[in-house]
Amino acid sequence: MGRKWNNIKEKKASKDANTSRIYAKFGLEIYVAARKGEPDPESNRALRVVLERAKTYNVPKAIIDRAIEKAKGSSDEIYEELRYEGFGPNGSMVIVDALTNNVNRTASAVRAAFSKNGGNMGVNGSVAYMFDATAVIGVSGRSLDEIMELMLEADVDVRDIVEEDEDVLVYAEPDQFHAVQEALRASGIEEFSVAELTMLAQNFVELPEDAQKQFDKIIDTLEDLEDVQQVYHNVEYAD
């Protein structure tokens, strides 16, 4: 399982050089999460998760504070959380999560990203059943055995713990996200190389070169859309 995650992480990292775009997406996500409840991560679990994710992307404190302050104000901006599902070449599958204040605009843009690049939109549920909602927490500088022992001692329910490159990755149910982090922090770990709530494909596919290029166009176009927050897929990139 870990092999798949770091493969995805490395591909994402190559695209995330546009930090201003990433920061803008996090700013919106933090604002929406803060508006759901109290703008305080101690009492707002959704906000806490987003802030933990933001740390691993080095989102500046000024952007975080500005989004939270905006949520405290009287703004009447309403954003909807939407999920789209679609298909690329050769059995590739894609899930798109968006935050939008204009559903028609977003639906049209997502549909065009698929259709203009050789993919097609699916109906709700046509793809998601092949993915599992998963918490992924990664740490560096600790051994696999040490992390396993910490999880056992804390009685945290995890799916898997794997070692890859310089990271030890803990996979768990989404509702165990904070429990895993708290168990790790109790041992003195404060920095996480990965802190994600993701949709992880149950099975991955490798694409031939021509199909891979076509698929990359779909993903790049989707990720460039202002309203799109996350894109998940089942394609494994070759080393």
UniProtKB/TrEMBL annotation:
Gene Ontology cellular component list: cytosol
Keyword ATP-binding: no
Record key words, sorted: Cytoplasm, DNA-binding, Transcription, Transcription regulation
Superkingdom of origin: Bacteria
Domain annotation TACO1/YebC-like second and third: ranges: 79-235
A GO biological-process term: regulation of DNA-templated transcription
Localisation: Cytoplasm
Gene Ontology molecular function terms on file: DNA binding
Record Pfam families: TACO1_YebC_N, Transcrip_reg
InterPro entries xref list: Integrase-like_N, TACO1_YebC-like_2nd/3rd_dom, TACO1_YebC_N, Transcrip_reg_TACO1-like, Transcrip_reg_TACO1-like_dom3, Transcrip_reg_TACO1_YeeN, YebC-like
Major location category of this protein: cytoplasm
Keyword Transcription: yes
Domain TACO1/YebC-like N-terminal, first and last residues per copy: 3-73
Family (UniProt): Belongs to the TACO1 family. YeeN subfamily.
Protein name as catalogued: Probable transcriptional regulatory protein HGI30_11405
Source organism per UniProt: Paenibacillus albicereus
